[in-house]
């Protein structure tokens, strides 16, 4: 007999979503709402969709993994709700500031003039390099190389640098950084290129991430109620395109059938199978693998070391650790277990509790730090954070997720470091120059 039944857990997650929306309206802080909405969809809604017969649990028994049952899914759901509560309570306790509303007409014009040509030129310079890089990776795959073990991750992930460039483009555009039509055309070319790179079955979470970041930037100058509508609209757009990208895995669909398949995937939570992934992971730790006790996070520091330099570097992900491969050993398959599943792999319920507290504190510190920056840097930091949250909440191979974050936003991190002195608010009084107060 489980300690909590589904109605109690679902109501709890829904209540957390409502509280997060109120938090946004009162403090202009979107982080809890993003976390709550994502986790509600991939956990409570996923459980409901499967138990109502709209979809089925993931089945990887052919790989030797235990099948997903309703009882096991309910237990995983309870763990997710517990971790979500710990994360949100810790975040809200440590982030009590009311985030000011951006004044998009104010800012350091000299800084925009310095940054604008660099962003445009670097973005346009990267476009042919990205095409060349993707062609090189495709050639290696056609030659029989393994994407997981033999193709350089730096080469494979290099195109993601355009995600960071696009985030800078959105920030400049929002703050009137592109005064001429020619500059706007160049900026739009970069945005379209990033759309084409990330819109597909393999990069859908990255696509959803930068679309969310765009929504954060676009809404930054509006009152909380309007921000709620804008961010919600961007999230619905992201989910719709996410489902379409998933349906594109079947090349035989006509356009009308593709739209129907995308709707079915979204309404049945076909791609939101993190609850299933948590159950599969529960059957691995600690029965087949020992808890990581922090090694999953330590591997974040080890992941940047090329395997060519360290051939015996430990593999990431429990599927790799178990030696479960597909396509003759050339690839791996895994179902993401959500961020709280990754915490579970670190140390069971103790890992969920401790890492949820740690992540809540870190997220709060980052948001508090953004309030000490000038408008461009402040909204940039929050946009990066929101774009990173979605793949991070998806969970799974945490070192790989952090590698994506680093490769996607290194241009932003480099700018924030190089101009850290110029991007800080010089005087408390300057807040009133750059920001509006919330009514």
Give an overview in words.
The chain is mainly α. It has one domain (6-436). The protein contains 17 helices and 4 strands. It has helices at residues 6-27, 31-51, 70-94, 109-142, 153-157, 161-174, 181-198, 204-219, 224-247, 255-267, 274-282, 295-302, 318-321, 339-370, 375-394, 398-418, 431-434, and strands at 101-102, 325-326, 331-332, 435-436. Strands 1-4 form a two-stranded antiparallel sheet. Strands 2-3 form a two-stranded antiparallel sheet. A hairpin with a 4-residue loop joins strand 2 (325-326) and strand 3 (331-332). Helix 1 runs antiparallel to helix 2 (31-51) and helix 6 (161-174) crosses helix 16 (398-418). The longest helix is centred in the N-terminal third of the chain and has 34 residues, at 109-142. It is globular, with a radius of gyration of 22 Å.
List the helices and strands and how they pair.
Blueprint: H1 6-27, H2 31-51, H3 70-94, E1 101-102, H4 109-142, H5 153-157, H6 161-174, H7 181-198, H8 204-219, H9 224-247, H10 255-267, H11 274-282, H12 295-302, H13 318-321, E2 325-326, E3 331-332, H14 339-370, H15 375-394, H16 398-418, H17 431-434, E4 435-436
Antiparallel strand pairs: 1-4, 2-3
């Amino acid at each position: 007999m489980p300690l909590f039944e589904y109605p109690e857990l679902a109501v709890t997650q829904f209540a957390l979503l409502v509280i997060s929306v109120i938090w946004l309206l009162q403090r202009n802080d979107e982080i809890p709402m993003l976390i709550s909405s994502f986790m509600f969809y991939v956990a409570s809604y996923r459980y409901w969709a499967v138990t109502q017969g709209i979809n089925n649990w993931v089945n990887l028994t052919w790989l030797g993994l235990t099948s997903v049952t309703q009882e096991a899914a309910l237990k995983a759901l309870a763990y997710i709700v517990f971790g979500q509560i710990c994360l949100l309570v810790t975040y809200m306790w440590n982030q009590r500031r009311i985030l000011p509303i951006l004044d998009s007409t104010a800012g350091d014009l000299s800084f925009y003039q310095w940054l604008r040509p660099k962003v445009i030129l670097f973005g346009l310079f990267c476009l042919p390099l990205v095409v060349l890089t993707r062609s090189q990776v495709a050639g290696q795959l056609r030659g029989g190389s393994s994407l997981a073990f033999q193709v350089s991750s730096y080469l494979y992930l290099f195109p993601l640098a355009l995600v960071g460039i696009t985030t800078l483009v959105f920030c400049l555009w929002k703050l009137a950084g592109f005064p001429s039509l020619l500059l706007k055309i160049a900026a739009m070319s970069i945005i379209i290129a990033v759309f084409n790179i990330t819109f597909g079955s393999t990069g859908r979470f990255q696509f959803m991430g930068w679309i969310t970041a765009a929504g954060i930037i676009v809404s930054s100058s509006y009152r909380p109620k309007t921000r709620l509508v804008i961010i919600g609209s961007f999230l619905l757009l992201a989910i719709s395109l996410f489902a379409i990208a998933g349906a594109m895995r079947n090349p035989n669909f006509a356009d009308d059938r593709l739209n129907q398949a995308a709707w079915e995937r979204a309404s049945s939570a076909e791609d939101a199978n993190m609850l299933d992934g948590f159950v599969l992971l529960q059957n691995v730790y600690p029965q087949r693998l020992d808890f990581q006790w922090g090694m999953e996070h330590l591997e974040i520091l080890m992941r940047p070391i090329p395997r060519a330099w360290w051939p015996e570097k430990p593999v990431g992900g429990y599927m790799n650790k178990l030696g479960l491969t597909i396509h003759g050993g050339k690839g791996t398959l895994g179902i993401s277990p959500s961020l709280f599943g990754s915490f579970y792999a670190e140390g069971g319920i103790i890992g969920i509790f401790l890492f949820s507290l740690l992540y809540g504190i870190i997220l709060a510190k980052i948001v508090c730090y953004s309030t000490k920056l000038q408008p461009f840097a402040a909204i940039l930091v929050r946009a990066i954070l929101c774009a990173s949250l979605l793949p991070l909440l998806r969970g799974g191979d945490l070192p790989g997720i952090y590698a994506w974050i680093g490769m996607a936003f290194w241009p932003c991190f480099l700018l924030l470091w190089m101009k850290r002195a110029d991007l800080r608010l010089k005087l408390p009084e300057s807040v009133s120059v750059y920001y509006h107060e919330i009514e």
